[in-house]
């Protein structure tokens, strides 16, 4: 209902007229959280699909990823320049902050994705890789509980053990299956999860005094250096420019738009809308989503052992996180939480007290 003042000629005294407009139905309260949650699962899963797409191109996957990080970091730099020149946004940058963020990004983006790329190059399936790396939040929760001196309950250890059994079942069914990967190749996604956890801890204990776009840019650049070195070792020369090849550019656009910025944006939105605990649970929907996506787009088979192992691992993770996180949910930092990057760790508000609930999930989009 709107109230309108109307002047009636020749009188100069206004009269008050009431005009009624039809009410616009409000959007149901669950629509936005559901949309953000689905976006996070899809964009997080897209990283594994994009990795397989990069591996299938004529260029080495390490070189494709090098240019992926260079392009994404360049877009971040462009955003920062526009903010600085147009909106007069001052950038608070110190050498210490940059060094800290480069160190964190070397583990949480570069080290994490090197393990994923090499594993899938050796033939480990996208779904199995997603399942193994999805245990990182549980690993981080266990490590942080030990670091802050909290006793882990029997339920927590039982859930962690059950998750490990689930992964073992999936791996056992995948060995010499889809891509004929050797047994030791399955240790690479485990190394990725450890690298991401180290990056999470570095970011949490020594947070850089940078905003989110700056953190993302420096972490992407750190990953670009690592992948550039890996590409040089593999090809014995500097990374070549991207070829005028449709498959190469399709993989690059897919990884930059969906995996980097899409995953990063949905991750931040999900943290702010739904908090740490629910966001951490959503990451365990990515292995089945990746398996189905890989089956449809890449033609990967979905084995019974993969499905059963994934279900066992999901139950184990849920039990473990129930024991590790939910008892402290009253202290959980909510909508003010942020991420250090896609590929990094969850970074809580830097003024918040240290507790074990805030570093337990991987970061957003870039690490996809």
Structural summary, described in words:
- The chain is mainly alpha-helical.
- It has one domain (58-238, 247-367).
- It is built from eleven helices and four strands; from the N terminus they run E-E-H-H-H-H-H-H-H-H-H-H-H-E-E.
- The chain has helices at 31-55, 61-85, 95-121, 126-133, 136-147, 154-174, 187-205, 212-235, 246-282, 286-298, 304-324; strands spanning 2-7, 14-19, 338-339, 346-347.
- A two-stranded antiparallel sheet has the order 1-2.
- Strand 1 (2-7) and strand 2 (14-19) form a beta hairpin.
- Helix 2 (61-85) packs across helix 9, helix 3 packs antiparallel against helix 7 (187-205) and helix 5 (136-147) crosses helix 7.
- The chain is globular.
- The model is unreliable at 329-367 (pLDDT under 50).
- Residues 348-358 have a biased composition (Basic and acidic residues).
- The chain crosses the membrane at residues 30-49, 61-82, 102-120, 126-147, 154-172, 184-204, 216-233, 248-269, 276-296, 302-325.
- Belongs to the EamA transporter family.
